[in-house]
Amino acid sequence: MNKPATIKDIAKTLKISTSTVSRALRNAHDVNPKTRNAVLALSEELSYQPSRLALSLQQKQTHTIGVIVPNLDYVMATMVRGIDEVALEAGYTVMVCQSNESFGREMVNTRRLLDSLVDGFIVSVSSETKVFDHFKKIQQKKMPMVVFDRVSSDLVAPKVKLDNVEGGYLATEHLIEQGYKNIAILAGPKNLAISNDRLEGYLKALKKFKVKPNAELILHCSFNQQDAYETTIELLKRKKHPDAIFTISDRMAIGAMLAIKEKGLRMPADIGLVGFNNEPITSLLSPSISSVDQPAFELGKTAAKLFIEQMHHEEDLSNIERVLKPKLAVRESSQRRKNKFSSAG
Amino acid sequence: MNKPATIKDIAKTLKISTSTVSRALRNAHDVNPKTRNAVLALSEELSYQPSRLALSLQQKQTHTIGVIVPNLDYVMATMVRGIDEVALEAGYTVMVCQSNESFGREMVNTRRLLDSLVDGFIVSVSSETKVFDHFKKIQQKKMPMVVFDRVSSDLVAPKVKLDNVEGGYLATEHLIEQGYKNIAILAGPKNLAISNDRLEGYLKALKKFKVKPNAELILHCSFNQQDAYETTIELLKRKKHPDAIFTISDRMAIGAMLAIKEKGLRMPADIGLVGFNNEPITSLLSPSISSVDQPAFELGKTAAKLFIEQMHHEEDLSNIERVLKPKLAVRESSQRRKNKFSSAG
DNA sequence: TTGTATGCGTTATCAA
DNA sequence: TTGATAACGCATACAA
């Protein structure tokens, strides 16, 4: 009772061969009903569980997906839940590893999972990552790999991502429509596509509305709140400071907000603010922060579906790129057209 | 080059036996340096990686820890990072599964990981869980299992948790010291020990300060914000409503805050509020919310250390209970003694 | 110092 | 319908 029961134990007890037991367990057609029932009964009694290890070794698949994410913040955790949902249903188990935005950690994790532990990967690259050899090794092994959310053009693989250009566009368009003239953008790390895409959307909106872009209003900083805070403080020290800021994450928006409040400026009257991710916190702050909403759960599900698809069919899907659309959640921090009197409060 | 290289490939190429290769790879003492070098060189060239699957099957250990958590909110994600940190260093890989506070999901996840995939578990029970058979099955298999954060007295296992009684005490003591007289508590689901412990701390503080507990001020509701909001609305409808609320999570505190604001009451002047978890958001809200801080990262690390300890030594640690101490982060929502004039603002 | 044989738990192939 | 055997990739007891 102590050691887990194996097929051998059943065979020995029933005085039949292991192959027969194996067949009976898997409901093969060519097995005597009497034998099968005996096997089923005994395996029930011993609470037999097939060893996934032995199966994996034999079939050369583990039915496990390695998921590598830079962190587990609100949005990522939601995406992972989406992945989990689909994977579980398809009979896969998920191994989630956080790289903590560290390139080294990302490599270690990948390598570890690569040692015949997983059938493939669903990854989102860390903000430090500039070299993709560890991911390319996955592909050399002909393992399926789907890249999601933080994708990179240096990686040829099926991808699922948000339409970040559209996200940047929506935010900027909205600010312009609200009458803001000097709109700054706090973009993220330069090596990340999401930074550049959201920046591109920003530029696209300016162009559409014939606003001349100003290089001094385009700032790069890391995703963390403190960095955004400091950058905004510097920004507001300028003689002619911007009258609106678009940050490409909500964390950054919060940093910016703290700086704005410190300077005694009011939102949306003196300065407009739009973030990105639509974290629950944005609706709770005062003023509430407008933010670009992304369908995180759906995005995770899509990534997992794409993975399964790639797993089952042999076709090359590496040029597929599923792009989900963002929406803009307009809140107090940027809305001054419909309630101009708000500045009186 | 396509299929991963095995020990056999090396043996064949070098015309030696697999056992020699195996020995050479593991730096055994009784192997000819010349042979070893040849093996090492070739394995390097073929970028040989031992199969963890085969190893696991043979040695009956996977060097993988199954981590089951109810969710991946801020605190949990931090704890998981702590677990990850220690596990990685000890040569273990972590499989994180979210139960989404669902009993069924928790069972499925446990069962899946149990099929010879992991060496043991580090778990935190879902709020729905009232029966622990699935966890007891782990113990029947003599697998190490550490319970953390959400522990249950129905489970005999090494445990790591916060001193929740102390947390409840700190919050309540603080409110009393600030002059609040009718302090309500929004406790969580009744079946969770953390609910009861924090409630116990609340009662302990009342007793210490000779305040008579009032059953009408003790309310149970789920952890989610909406529920806390509705409960608070009801609470404030009473003729003689409480002048302070202690919620056992920050999510609940936010729900309560929304209700308080809706009623037009001011914090801390009209009503005091203290939450639990010290999520970053608490310092950003207006007013900022006082909250009980728990050393989440440390707690995760401790759980993993305990797991490793249990793994390595054969001693029975099932009566061990590591208890970490909380601190109180005092913020605007409850502090009225040191700045009474704040009610004028 | 090296090789042979065996086992880990399972399935597949082939023969009976 | 069933059984013997080999194989998956590795480690190890034992023999050479």
From TrEMBL, chains A, B:
In which organism is this protein found?
A: Flavisolibacter ginsenosidimutans
Source organism, top-level taxon:
Bacteria
Keyword annotations for this protein, in alphabetical order, are: DNA-binding, Transcription, Transcription regulation
Q: Note the Pfam families from the entry.
A: LacI (PF00356), Peripla_BP_1 (PF00532)
Q: Which Gene Ontology terms cover its molecular function?
A: DNA-binding transcription factor activity; transcription cis-regulatory region binding
Q: Gene3D superfamilies, from UniProt?
A: 3.40.50.2300, lambda repressor-like DNA-binding domains
Q: Which residues form the HTH lacI-type domain?
A: 5-59
PANTHER family linked: HTH-TYPE TRANSCRIPTIONAL REGULATOR GALS, LACI-RELATED TRANSCRIPTIONAL REPRESSOR
Q: What is this protein's name?
A: LacI family transcriptional regulator
